[in-house]
Amino acid sequence: MPTSESYTDFLRRLADEESGGKYDIASPSGTFIGKYQMGPGALQDAGYKDSKGKWTGKNGIFTDRDFRENKNNAQEDAISIYHDRVWKTIQSAGLDKYEGRVINGVKITKYGMIGAAHLRGVGKKNPEREDQRGLRQYLESGGKIDPADANNTPVSSYIKRLSGEDNVSAPVPVLKPNTITNEELSQEEKLLESMTIDKFLQKLENLDLDKIFEQPKNQTQKGN
Question: Taking 80 as the threshold, does the pLDDT of residue 55 lie above it?
């Protein structure tokens, strides 16, 4: 994963979620370790552990202690390699097409997807068990399926908090009833086109809706 300001910011947010930004930390079981709480699978993908869960000696890391001390900046190296592989898996699964879309009011971003996969995995195409569900199921179901980790943290929460966006909502469509022709609404439309839901609702409170939707006097009602 190339280093960039946005990726650096993403890692900071991820570390805050996983460990409070501490390198020398491990889960109670010892399964997840370090600043980013990397498990055996992630460490294997990064080349730091083998298929049997033993340290490979990469980058001078031979023990849990070596890794927790972040010798040779190993934790930052491992997470970068792992996330690069995660993103390639997301792309090969065709899930990158969801980037830029809005699900449950939250814009899907590259880092939001990587964060969700970091939490729960990309997910199998046809999962036979609950633990095989991940990012894929959330995206393909339009947010109706929201897998969670062992701590009951759902995929949606990581997508939202790690997206790199201000948790933006979809632009609000401008409603154009047939009876609205006054100049006042035209001015409001220009303002609403770029508004998110929160700003739209705030603006809506200040509108005189009775005036805007008032039936023109010279127009007979349908059915009369």
Answer: yes
